Hints:
The structure holds two protein chains of two kinds.
Chain A: E1 9-14, H1 20-27, E2 41-43, E3 51-55, E4 58-59, H2 63-72, E5 78-82, H3 84-88, E6 98-100, E7 110-112, H4 119-145
Parallel strand pairs in A: 1-2, 1-3, 3-5, 5-7
Antiparallel strand pairs in A: 4-6
Chain B: H1 3-9, H2 12-40, H3 50-60, H4 68-89, H5 94-113, H6 118-149, H7 154-158, H8 169-182, H9 210-233, H10 240-260, H11 266-290
Helix pairs in contact in B: 2-4, 2-9, 2-10, 3-9, 4-5, 4-9, 5-6, 6-8, 6-11, 8-11, 9-10
Amino acid sequence: MAYITKSPWIIHYDASSCNGCDIEVLACLTPLYDIERFGIINTGNPKHADVFLVTGGVNEQNRPVIKNIYRQMPKPNVVVAIGACALSGGVFRECYNIAGGVDKLIPVDVYVPGCSAKPEAIIDGVVKALGILEKKREAMKKEAGN
Amino acid sequence: MSFLDVMNVYPLIGVLLFIVLSPLVGGIIFGIDRIITARMQGRVGPPVLQPLYDIFKLFEKEKMVIHESQNFWIFGYLIFMIITGALFFGGSDILLVIFALTLAHVALILGAFSSGSPYAHIGAERELIQLMAVEPMIIIAAVGFYEVTGSFNTLDIISSGSPLILVLPGIFIGFVYILTVKLRKSPFDISTSHHAHQELVRGLNTEFAGSTLGMVELAHLYETAILLGFIFLFFGLAAPIIGLIVVALIYLIEIFVDNATSRVKWGLMFKSCWIVTAVLGVVNLMALYLI
């Protein structure tokens, strides 16, 4: 078992979200859900993070920011898109300044639907992401072996 | 054969025990720290071995550096921290221990400076201020040990006939005061912090990722073992059980202080450390001459 699934550190970015999903993401850290039980820590630094949580539809201004954060995360890493807007642009998808879902810019591994997404759903999504993280880690190991 | 004879003949035993055991002991201490912190906030908290899982994970990650020199400095930090502990637990000269400890921190600061990142720069500058704030007290502690036992060797200090705290109470309290800075605990966690992951991005550790950050964390485990060993010197083999209880108690108090206080500005940290050093440390030293 890889240690990466025992201590996934997350970074959370709000890409023009209405803050509904952000509040739910932070709710996961509160005593009620306490995701630190699983070694999950909310970092503010992409270089320390393993899981990238994005909320909100991407607009033109935060397009480079998201790409930048993703590029600064050391491999293996996973991206979790949270909420209807991050999945497809949601109700804002027709707006002139909205690029659409996060997957238009960077590869997304797990989609967590909802408006806003429930904390239980977010935790479920992160747990699913951990399985993908472990697979990526093994693929990385094989590549290094070759 | 008593403990002292064994240590006198084979000082390498202490060194090997330090190198092998202190990451484990330090990891468990940090794990308990995180659980107590979580309980104080009404949470359950991570497993006890979580700090070790974190370090193992960091070594699994991709190597990502801004500058090759970064790795060199951080490796130097880890190696000098291990040398510090080897000198300390091998029963060597305590002045050498202090110089090696400072050298290790200088390597860490140079590593942070070499990245060129503004966040790491601020963190490195603040770490320099922390070093300046704590260094006088540590040296006064060494001088105090010498005044009482007549030797700078940790082996002679630890085997002193009576507990040193009886004649060095001021230096003891002063050392505990600066321990908060050394352990990176609030209110003095100004260069980087365990808990506040989003402040000044991460201060000193901002530009370290993957195995480089793993080495920084590992060195911090070693440093914790050295510092708690330093506290134990005040009791030594004259009162070993009381010594261990006091070491545990002091760490517990550090956790409570960490959770109950907010961070102070660097000026207040610096001034208060030097005032405590000047009042408690120097007065205690002067009293030693009078006795």
